[in-house]
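[Automated response] Your request has been received and processed.

Submitted sequence:
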Amino acid sequence: MGERAREGRLEKARGQVEDLLGCAVDEVVFTSGGSEGNNLALKGVFFALRHKGEHIITTAVEHPAILGPLRVDDTTWQVQSRNHRVVIGSHSPLAIKSR
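Generated structure:
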């Protein structure tokens, strides 16, 4: 299959997702896999909402695709090489607060 054909199929799929979700076509992003998608979502939400507080709260048992982008080394956690606070909570069920 040629490159134009692949691009045509990708754009068709993007349009189908747009119709299904009722969003703009430029809001539909395809990634190569779950880890890349999680990373993009984590950073996108963080930077979109950082005016509410420049910190992320997560748990010690979060998936590596979420914890990986936040880890600098075993004692330092930050977002994208910036000094934003990352809070790693306990994995105890009591530490998880539901609404």
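Summary generated for your ticket: The two ends are 49 Å apart (CA to CA). Confidence is low (pLDDT under 50) at residues 93-99.
If you did not submit this request, please reply to this message.
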